[in-house]
């Protein structure tokens, strides 16, 4: 098998991506993410899977930022984003706009990701939490559903950008 070249991939320009490519009715909310590398990685994943917008909340850094750019590799320019000082204010605004708010968190009575059915025609937002403390409890309480990625190893959690990538893929493939 021959590896594809960059030209074989037929990627669009940032301008074409922003104006001509239809995005899915799906937002990602970053709740107080500390690592700029994680923020950049989420931007890059959001670009790949047609996320409508990323909501950057609390201490989460915003572009332009060289550290975000290291992992985003320009996706911070193609993916729409908005900053909220408070994650709960962001969640409330999304709910008022008709989004179903999904918290990616380990909680009692969570729904396993593979069992969560994404319905076409609905708008979704998924909240990803802080690397140490997870999603703020008040935000968990405000969400419509909590989704958990089942894990079988010795560690209690995945990196936030990794778990975000897994969850974003779940929504993307359902909304195709």
Q: Could you list some keywords that capture this structure?
A:
alpha/beta; 176 residues; Alpha/beta knot; 36% helix; 7 helices
Account of the protein in words:
It is a single chain. By secondary structure, the protein is α/β, with parallel strands linked by helices. It has one domain (14-175): 3-Layer(aba) Sandwich (Alpha/beta knot), CATH 3.40.1280.10. The chain contains seven helices and seven strands. The chain has helices spanning 14-20, 36-48, 66-72, 75-78, 87-96, 137-142, 160-175; strands at residues 24-31, 51-57, 81-84, 99-104, 111-112, 123-128, 145-148. The protein has a seven-stranded parallel β-sheet, with helices on both faces. It is globular.
Mean pLDDT: 97
**Approximately what portion of the residues adopt beta-strand conformation?**
15-25%
Order of helices and strands: HEHEHHEHEEEHEH
Structural class: alpha/beta
Count of strand segments: 7
CATH topology: Alpha/beta knot
Separate helix tally: 7
**CATH architecture verdict:** 3-Layer(aba) Sandwich
Largest sheet: 7 strands, parallel
Question: Would you state the CATH class?
Answer: Alpha Beta
Poorly predicted segments: none
- Count up the domains: 1
CATH superfamily (homologous) name: SPOUT methyltransferase, trefoil knot domain
- The gyration radius over C-alpha positions equals 16 Å
Q: What is the first-to-last residue Cα distance?
A: 27 Å
What percentage of residues falls in helices of 4 or more residues? 25-40%
Molecular shape? globular
Strand adjacency order, main sheet = 3-2-1-6-4-7-5
Oligomeric state, counting identical vs distinct chains: single chain
């Amino acid at each position: 098998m021959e590896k594809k070249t960059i030209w074989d991939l037929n990627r669009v320009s940032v301008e074409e991506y922003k104006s001509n490519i239809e995005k899915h009715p799906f937002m990602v909310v970053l709740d107080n993410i500390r690592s700029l590398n994680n923020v950049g990685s989420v931007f890059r994943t959001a670009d790949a899977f047609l996320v409508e917008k990323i909501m950057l909340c609390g201490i989460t850094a915003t572009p332009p930022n060289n550290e975000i750019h290291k992992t985003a590799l320009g996706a911070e320019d193609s993916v729409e984003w908005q900053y909220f000082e408070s994650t709960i204010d962001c969640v409330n605004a999304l709910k008022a706009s008709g989004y179903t708010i999904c918290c990616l968190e380990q909680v009692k009575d969570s729904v396993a990701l593979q069992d969560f059915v994404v319905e076409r025609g609905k708008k979704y937002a998924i909240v990803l939490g802080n690397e140490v403390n997870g999603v703020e409890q008040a935000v968990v309480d405000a969400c419509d559903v909590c989704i958990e990625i089942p894990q079988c190893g010795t560690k209690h959690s995945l990196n936030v950008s990794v778990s975000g990538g897994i969850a974003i893929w779940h929504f993307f493939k359902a909304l195709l």
